């Protein structure tokens, strides 16, 4: 049953990411753009962990504060795309209560999490105080889990108001996030999360609606993996007979979006579909990889080498007894050149995924993007 829910959850997030990519492209083709940098600060209005009243007692700790950096690409029409990294500590106190009425000493556990919402926003384009709504997928990384299994994926919606103070913008927002399910957690994390946050932004780049290096470009990405997908089993089972796969060619394909910051710097986001193959047997694990990369061209020219790097996120379904890491870091390099109205950028990428027993942590790919 959990496997079916995970597949449905991945499919739903896939559609949300594809819809967001189409939305960005449609906006970028029609309006001017402004890049804002800033940060968020706020407080959770809901506990981070469910209380437990068994012999293993769990009480949520004080909620504290949340915050982190923010990047926003705004459009003249009032629409915007916002990417932020929000740190939150989920704390709880635990102790044991025995049948004779005595208790063990209590101790506090703190789970450090980073949340990465990628939100489409709409702000009324006139007035000093402007209502704003936002929605999109969220990703979460956790460390020191202390018996919990925080879901790495969720959906976020929010509403508030944006206040203009000359160039500075301040936006108090009430935000709700629904996180995905957890596989048999010993200490369940609260799935419905409500936060009150304030976002502060300042424009660092304004780009006209005419074609320029700073425009949002949209296209396709195709490639070939150069490394295997799974570690050899510790106790390999004998495999006899034959295995047949349909469309067995190992490949990577998906959508790409590139938002120019200057004539050399850009932000690139991919949504890449890749099937992980076992060395024996015909089973596959379906994944969507979402690298968010800073890209730098080494010279100002229509044909120029580039380097890139940033975090990568991975959604997985059809797990077949595996649990691929959801987070990693990607670096790459290649050459970008113009081909008529298109830009083509073939390159070599290396991704280091978080540790898992089954999947290989080191991934190398030949990948080419074409954008318009």
Unreliable segments of 5+ consecutive residues: 1-10
Strand content: over 45%
Main sheet summary: 8 strands, antiparallel, barrel
Strand order of the biggest β-sheet: 1-4-5-7-8-9-10-11
Order of helices and strands: HEEEEEEEEEEEEEEEEEEE
Number of E-state strands:
19
| Coarse shape | flat
Give the termini distance in whole angstroms.
42 Å
**Whole-number tally of structural domains:** 2
Q: Helical proportion? A: under 10%
Question: How many H/I helical runs?
Answer: 1
Instruction: Quickly give the structural class.
Output: mainly beta
Q: Name the CATH class of the largest domain.
A: Mainly Beta
Describe this entry's structure for a reader.
Helix content is 7%, strand content 58%. With 372 residues, it is mainly beta. Strands 1-4-5-7-8-9-10-11 form an 8-stranded antiparallel beta barrel. Strands 12-13-14-15-16-17-18-19 form an 8-stranded antiparallel beta barrel.
Strand-helix topology:
Elements: H1 2-28, E1 33-44, E2 52-53, E3 56-60, E4 66-75, E5 79-84, E6 86-96, E7 107-123, E8 129-143, E9 153-165, E10 168-179, E11 192-207, E12 216-225, E13 252-260, E14 265-277, E15 284-297, E16 304-317, E17 327-339, E18 342-353, E19 362-371
Antiparallel strand pairs: 1-4, 1-11, 2-3, 3-6, 4-5, 5-7, 6-7, 7-8, 8-9, 9-10, 10-11, 12-13, 12-19, 13-14, 14-15, 15-16, 16-17, 17-18, 18-19
């Amino acid at each position: 049953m959990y496997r079916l829910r995970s597949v449905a959850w991945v499919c739903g997030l896939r559609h949300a990411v594809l819809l967001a990519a189409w939305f960005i492209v449609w906006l970028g083709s029609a309006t001017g753009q402004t890049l804002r940098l800033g940060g968020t600060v706020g407080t959770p209005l809901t506990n981070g962990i469910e209380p437990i009243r068994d012999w293993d007692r769990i009480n949520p700790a004080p909620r504290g504060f949340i915050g982190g950096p923010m990047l926003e690409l705004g459009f003249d029409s009032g629409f915007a795309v916002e990417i932020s990294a929000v740190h939150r500590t989920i704390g709880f106190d635990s102790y044991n209560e025995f049948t004779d009425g005595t208790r063990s000493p209590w101790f506090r556990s703190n789970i450090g999490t980073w949340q990465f919402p990628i939100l489409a926003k709409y702000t009324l384009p006139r007035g000093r105080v402007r209502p704003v709504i936002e929605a999109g997928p969220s990703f979460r990384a956790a460390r020191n889990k202390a018996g919990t299994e925080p879901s790495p994926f969720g959906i976020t919606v929010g509403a508030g108001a944006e206040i203009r103070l000359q160039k500075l913008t301040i936006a108090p927002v009430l935000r709700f996030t629904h996180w995905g399910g957890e596989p048999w957690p010993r200490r369940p994390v609260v799935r419905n999360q409500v936060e009150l946050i304030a976002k502060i932004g300042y424009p660092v780049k304004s780009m006209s609606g005419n074609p320029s290096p700073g425009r949002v470009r949209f296209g396709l990405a195709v490639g070939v993996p150069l490394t295997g997908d799974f570690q050899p089993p510790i106790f390999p089972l004998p495999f006899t007979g034959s295995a047949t796969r349909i469309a067995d060619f190992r490949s990577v394909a998906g959508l790409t979006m590139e938002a120019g910051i200057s004539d050399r710097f850009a932000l690139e986001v991919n949504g890449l579909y890749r099937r992980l193959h076992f060395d024996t047997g015909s089973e596959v694990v379906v994944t969507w990889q979402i690298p968010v990369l800073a890209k730098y061209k080494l010279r100002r020219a229509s044909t120029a080498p580039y380097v890139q790097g940033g975090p990568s996120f991975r959604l997985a379904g059809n797990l077949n007894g595996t649990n691929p890491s959801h987070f990693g870091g990607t670096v790459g390099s290649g050459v970008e050149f113009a081909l008529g109205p298109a830009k083509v950028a073939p390159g070599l990428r290396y991704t280091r995924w978080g540790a898992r027993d089954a999947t290989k942590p080191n991934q190398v790919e030949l990948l080419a993007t074409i954008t318009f």
